[in-house]
Amino acid sequence: MNKFFTIIIIVFSFIPVISCSGKSNNKSGSAAVGISTEKERLVERVKELSLGLPEDIRLGIIGDIDRFLEQLKPVLNLPEEIILQADKSHSLGADYTPEDLVNPGDYTGLSVSRNNLSLREIIISDLQRMSGDAWNEGLILLISSTYRSFDYQDRLFKWNVEQNGLETAERESARPGTSQHQLGTAIDFGSITDEYAFTPAGKWLLENGWRYGFTLSYPDGYEWLTGYRYECWHFRYITPSGAKLQKEYFGDIQHYMISFLNTNREELEKLLKAD
Ligand SMILES: [Zn+2]
Fold this sequence. Notes:
two-stranded antiparallel ribbon; Muramoyl-pentapeptide Carboxypeptidase, domain 2; 275 residues
């Protein structure tokens, strides 16, 4: 009898081993391993690409990689100039002129400070939607400064240096070629002064502008990053999907997102195709 029980125990103790080994060798098991390896590679690469970003922003992207990539796709499909980098280290050059400039004063529902302003036509419908919704809340979003050509920016910067000295001019005014205003998608609203932040319109824009694709380019406390002091009046249009991506994955700091996308654009496009 003892021998019989020993055999039974030996037989039963083998069953789970056979079962496990059988399961791990089937076809669906291999495919799952393959997918996870591919995914791991993608995550590893995005981890490397995001090395220059602050740790909390990096972890937010990596920890939610599927959704991040899903939201990144439409932003990379936008016309390139929408997220083109124009800052102290990235010049657009003297020849950059948008082709679809229009006068916002010609469009219903837009309030302009003068009649010779220019903006890219692609931003008009979202701008009208934003101005209309603000108007319904009793607010006027006054468009005060818009597209500036390379030559105009050159004169403006020189004038600023004459008026305020080089150090102040560098903090408040862009050298020609490096201004977002040359893109035709940046707008200075209202009084173009620090007080605008405390007006109902300034507060509304800061809170709601992103829903229509407009985000603050030079936020408070980031002069070390953007090169410019806080400009509560200066917004750049990056489309609603771009603004959502900025808000959810880049700490709502435009500079982080624009810089990340421009530095890694080609590789991100390849990764997304392979995904
Ligand atoms: Zn501006």
